[in-house]
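User: Last request for today: this protein with adenosine-5'-triphosphate, please.
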Amino acid sequence: MAKKDRPLKKLSPKKRLRRIGELVEPFRVTSGKRFRLRDYDPDDTRGLVSKEEAQEYLKTGVALLAEMQDKLYAQDQWGVLLIFQAMDAAGKDGAIKHVMSGVNPQGCQVFAFKAPTSEELDHDALWRTSKSLPERGRIGIFNRSYYEEVLVVRVHPEILEKQKLPRSLVTKRVWDERLEDIRAFERYLSRQGFLIVKFFLNVSKKAQKERFLERLEEPEKHWKFSLADAQERKHWRAYMDAYQDAIAKTATKDAPWYVVPADKKWFARLVVAGAIYEALAKLKLRYPEVGPEKKKELAAARAALMGEAKSAVRDKRRPVAKTRVVAKRRSLSRSSTRTRPATMAPPAPAEELAADTGATAADES
Ligand code: ATP
Ligand code: MG
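Assistant: Here's the final one, the structure of the complex with adenosine-5'-triphosphate:
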């Protein structure tokens, strides 16, 4: 992306989409044919020259995402599942935090999956993640997911040993079978109206080492460091092979993978935001159409509200009304010492007034 390009927010929606599409397309995998993880450079930035430039893009991308999420929520038909997988310190948490920073928390759910509990091990492998799938109208984020069943479990066969599968079912084909099941599960979800977008944050072994060393040097990052993470580096090759196979066998048009270059965090975040935006744009989301019945209801509500205002003005002018209010005030003060009659109430706080008029904080920004 060259500097001369017009800023994203100044482009028409169609052109914006094309620009974002150009940026994310090289990292999208929709078929396993010819997929080679080693063809993807973790340090790629597609010619974007600076972090500042990328941040400008990201800001626009995040604002656009918020707009789309509002429509997704209002329409309440499609659901979105975003899956984040990566080696340690690849920047999953940061990407989720930055990319989703502009969206309404009510329409978004994040779940992190660690080593399974004994209750989880008592169920089938997809049980725990199925319980956390997003509802229609919402964006669900899985920070790690059922893919761990073909990644960490594959790299460490001792984990598979601890799973309570009947021995006769654990054959050489176990990984192929799991991948086949995941593919079928995702196809089922997409046929149910759930859009799935999967991200592998592709960090290099070298960049991971630098980030681990950084964590050791900065006291506020110590909590993030564990010796086990450093030891896991010994299995790097096995992990890459497992990722290669998992991506190749589960990349489809309905549930694409994005192999996101993650050595530059700022670029990774931009690709993630772009990919989500592009996926949502394909849903052609719109605010629900209001039918003639609903329009009548809205007109009636408006007339009632306007009528309220007019009668309030009339009441103010009529002296009789005053006596009525006084009478009411007397009866109220007799019946309860705690209830403050409406006529004596102090002015409502600003936020109540805003709520009354339907205004929100977002309206102000
Ligand atoms: P952080 O960036 O904070 O390190 P994280 O996602 O690595 O985030 P951790 O608590 O460090 O979180 O690690 C969770 C661990 O749980 C990972 O090592 C992951 O491989 C493991 N895990 C997740 N799912 C499974 C599973 N089904 N079976 C075994 N281990 C799992
Ligand atoms: Mg970890």
